[in-house]
Write a structure and sequence with these properties.
Layout (H helix, E strand, L loop, with lengths): L14 H16 L9 H18 L4 E11 L19 E8 L3 E11 L3
Antiparallel strand pairs: 1-3, 2-3
Helix pairs in contact: 1-2
Length: 116
C-alpha cells in the first residue's frame, strides 16, 4: 500500500521552489517594463501579493513574509541585508534578484514553520 505524503509533512523550507515562484511573479509584473516611479507602488504590491498567494497555495505549514524593493538602475548600486533568529531546520529564507536595463528588483521571502 502506497503511503500518502502531504506537502506540509516535509521538513524544511524549499528555497528553490520559492525562488521559482517569486521569479515568475516578478517576470509577470515587470517583464517588458521600463522604470516609472508612478507605477512602483502598483508593481511592488502586485509582486508581493502574487508571490504570497502562490506560496500559500502550496499548502505547507508556514507563515510567510514577503518584501519587495524596486529601484531605478544607477551607478550607485543597490544593497540589502537581513538577519533572522529562528529554527534553521524548519524555517528559511529566499532572496530573488531581478534586473533589466532600467531597474533592479529584490524580493525576499521569509518562511516560519507553524508548529501544530
Amino acid at each position: 500500500m502506497e503511503e500518502y505524503h502531504r506537502p506540509c509533512d516535509e521538513v524544511g523550507f524549499n528555497a528553490d521552489e520559492a525562488h521559482n515562484i517569486v521569479k515568475e511573479c516578478i517576470d509577470g509584473v515587470l517583464g517588458g517594463e521600463d522604470y516609472n516611479h508612478n507605477n512602483i507602488n502598483q508593481w511592488t504590491a502586485s509582486i508581493v501579493e502574487q508571490s504570497l498567494a502562490h506560496l500559500v497555495k502550496l499548502g505547507k505549514a508556514y507563515k510567510y513574509i514577503v518584501t519587495c524593493a524596486v529601484v531605478q538602475r544607477s551607478a550607485y548600486g543597490f544593497h540589502t541585508a537581513s538577519s533572522c533568529f529562528w529554527d534553521t531546520t524548519s524555517d528559511g529564507t529566499c532572496t530573488v534578484r531581478w534586473e533589466n536595463r532600467t531597474m533592479n528588483c529584490i524580493v525576499s521571502v521569509f518562511a516560519i514553520a507553524i508548529v501544530l
